[in-house]
Amino acid sequence: MEAIKQRYSKQRETILEVVQSTLVHPNADWIYKETRKRIPNISLGTVYRNLNQLVETGRIIKLKDESMVRYDGNIGHHDHFRCAVCGKWYDVEMIDQAIIKSFAEKHDFQVESFHLELEGTCKSCLNS
Ligand SMILES: [Zn+2]
Ligand SMILES: [Zn+2]
């Protein structure tokens, strides 16, 4: 029993490492392929189950766009830039809080959270 538990948590740690090792905001298939390089006999179902547990315990973030679910190992507050050409998501970390503050003051609102999503064409798509 203990051995099984250990194996499960090792799988989960490996999946977490895979998600944290990349900035591409991967989908489950990508994570499955990368995890299989380290744990060759892991199943897609196990990867999904562990991803859900990691999301539930707040260790990774689940993102959705129209076409797929993606996972983010960066759990600090940040926003995203989405490339309309290649579909990749990039982290945006320098949104000026002063903009939010001046909006709140202007309208007498109290802002408790915000999420900004930028969309456009990324550098590598512009250059190709
Ligand atoms: Zn792109
Ligand atoms: Zn992100």
Attribute tags:
128 residues; alpha+beta; Arc Repressor Mutant, subunit A; Dna Ligase, domain 1; 3-stranded mixed sheet; two-stranded antiparallel ribbon; 5 helices; binds zinc ion
Low-confidence runs: none
Question: How is the largest sheet built, in terms of strand order?
Answer: 4-3-5
Order of helices and strands: HHHEEEEHEH
Tally of distinct domains: 2
User: What is the helix content?
Assistant: 40-55%
Work out the radius of gyration: 18 Å
Summarize the entry for a quick read.
The chain is of the alpha+beta class and 128 residues long.
Mind explaining what this structure looks like?
This protein is of the alpha+beta class. It folds into two domains: 2-72, Winged helix-like DNA-binding domain superfamily/Winged helix DNA-binding domain (Arc Repressor Mutant, subunit A); 79-126, 2-Layer Sandwich (Dna Ligase, domain 1), CATH 3.30.1490.190. Helix content is 45%, strand content 16%. It has a three-stranded mixed β-sheet with strand order 4-3-5, with no helix packed on it. Strands 1-2 form a two-stranded antiparallel sheet. Strand 1 and strand 2 (69-72) form a beta hairpin. Helix 1 packs across helix 2 (28-38), helix 1 packs across helix 3 and helix 2 packs across helix 3. The protein is globular. Bound molecules: zinc ion (2 copies). One zinc ion is lined by residues 83, 85-86, 88, 122, 124-125.
Would you spell out the secondary-structure blueprint of this structure?
Elements lengths: L1 H19 L7 H11 L5 H13 L4 E4 L4 E4 L6 E5 L5 E4 L4 H11 L9 E4 L2 H4 L2
Parallel strand pairs: 3-5
Antiparallel strand pairs: 1-2, 3-4
The chain binds zinc ion (2 copies).
